Amino acid sequence: MSSFFDSDSPTNVAEYSVSELSGSIKRTIEQTFEHVRVRGEISGYRGPHSSGHAYFSLKDDRARIDAVIWKSAFARLKFRPEEGMEVIATGRITTFPGSSKYQIVIESLEPAGAGALMALIEERKRKFAAEGLFDAACKKPLPFMPRVIGVVTSPTGAVIRDILHRIADRFPVHVIVWPVRVQGDGAGDEIAAAIQGFNALEPGGAAPRPDVLIVARGGGSLEDLWCFNDEAVVRAAAASGIPLISAVGHETDWTLIDYAADQRAPTPTGAAEMAVPVKAELEAQVASLGARLKGAVMRQMDHRRHGLRALARALPSLDQLLALPRRRFDEASAGLGRGLEMNTANKRRSFERTAAHLRPELIGTRIGDRRQRVSDLVNRAERCVERQLDRRQSRVSAADASLRALPSRLVGQIHRAQDRVSGLGARGDAAIGAELRRLKGALAAQDRVLQSLSYRNVLGRGFALVRDAEGEPVKQAAAVKPGMVLSVEFADGRVSAVASEDDAPPTPAAPKRRAARAVEPSKQGSLF
To answer: Which helix (DSSP H) or strand (DSSP E) does residue 178 occupy?
Structure first.
């Protein structure tokens, strides 16, 4: 630190740097307020930062102070801070020189009395009720006789022993205990995870899936039971697919899980009584029902036996039932002999009537008639065959005569066809000659027209055709550039030339070059 008295200063007032002044204020405040308890309402709480620290503010109706809970202290808190919760914070006041602000570093945090906690519980209760987590329609009935019971509680307390003892007395079943903390920081997350873990078990897996769940804890203060008011616990209980019994505290203790559970038990022992029936009572009830069933069966059998006897007395005897059939049989057997005799006599008379018509003379006459008819049919068939043969022979003779006369007729037809073809050939030759003469005359006329329109006739009158190096005609002088190679076609041949400036005199070698390039006469003759 610089001296309080500087010889260069015009006054005796000491000068501080900003860092010195901020450090002095920081030490003064920390020494004066190294341990304070502040009561206020949490404001601006958004949960722990990614670093694990928590930043928020404490306020009342007239002032506001920044607050921070370091990561190490946050892990030791019995209550998690919540927005709008009135708390009592214990810590120390310090400053942050970087922004000239002061704040309280909280080391412990507790709710500001039961009134604040009850208000927070009522607020959560209204919120969950509005979401339908407490609806009676969502409650599931408890199974009458579960085979497996899951218990979520502390493994070291008296609660689990009471539950196991009560279940063993009433109806021994398989009990699975999921050990959790039932008080303090992180207890709510463990309870919610246990409920979700039981629901995640598959039926028939290595670990049996419980038929009913019991979430239990002994009595305690509101602060001790606070983890059962945690939002994660309430939502896990409401979403449980397994029927759930809440047994938290004594009969007068109510937590939010009691509203979300399917059943609420006043005590953990009461939860065990709800979960299983009394085996002795069931056995007595089964024995009573078995005795009642046996008596009812015996009475029913007696009633049916009496009815059967009454029906048997009303039925006729065997002699009465067989009297009428027996009489009919006797009558039928007595008339059977007479019937056979009458039937034999009738058949004999019928045979005699038929035999009277079967005389040898009659049979011989019928055989002669049939033989005569067969002979007539054979004669008729022979005459038909002879007539058919005559007709076929006549047709064959006519066809033979026609075939013998056929060559002479064919020769005549061939001669007539040859004469006709010769005449047609002569007429065709004359027609082709006339057409050729006509086409030759037309072609000669077209050639004369072509010769009259040909540019070669113009060249014969002293004109010339100038072409460029590509052989295209040059129609204007402006298209000719100096030094351009040209081809000049006359009536008797072609010569090559090089274009020069308009005012350049002709070179002496030009005549020699022109004479050197001999002009070949056109070799194209007449078309005909």
So the answer is: strand 174-179
Exposure string for 38-53, b = 16+ CB within 10 A, e = fewer: bebbbeebeebeeeee
Kindly write down the DSSP assignment for every residue of 450-501, as one continuous string: HHHH-HHHHHHTT--EEE-TTS-B---GGGPPTT-EEEEEETTEEEEEE---
Cβ atoms of residues 100 and 19 within 8 Å: no
Gyration radius from the chain CA atoms: 69
For the chain, how far is it from start to end, CA to CA, in angstroms?
133
Torsion angles phi and psi, residue 76, rounded to 5: -95, 0
**pTM, rounded to two decimals:** 0.43
Q: Check residue 66 and give left, alpha or beta (phi > 0: left; psi -120 to 50: alpha).
A: beta
N residues, the chain: 528
As given in the structure block, the two tokens for residue 147 are 């085979």
Residues 359-394: pLDDT tens digits? Answer: 677 777 888 888 888 888 888 888 898 888 888 888
The sign of the CA dihedral 48, 52, 74, 180 is positive
Copy the structure tokens of residue 292.
């009642």
Q: Which residues contact 146 (CB under 8 A, 6 or more apart)?
A: 173, 210, 211, 212, 275, 276
- The yes-or-no verdict on residue 514 having pLDDT over 90 is no
CA-CA distance, 270 to 175, in Å (whole number)?
16
Q: Please give the pLDDT value at position 520.
A: 46
- As separate numbers, helices (DSSP H) first and strands (DSSP E) second, the chain gives 13, 13
Residue pointed to by tokens 């009342």: 60
Question: What is the DSSP secondary-structure string of 213-262?
Answer: EEEEE----TTTTGGGG-HHHHHHHHH-SS-EEEEESSTT---HHHHHSS
What are the residues whose beta carbons fall under 8 Å from the beta carbon of 141, sequence distance 6 or more? 243, 262
DSSP string, 361-384: HHHHHHHHHHHHHHHHHHHHHHHH
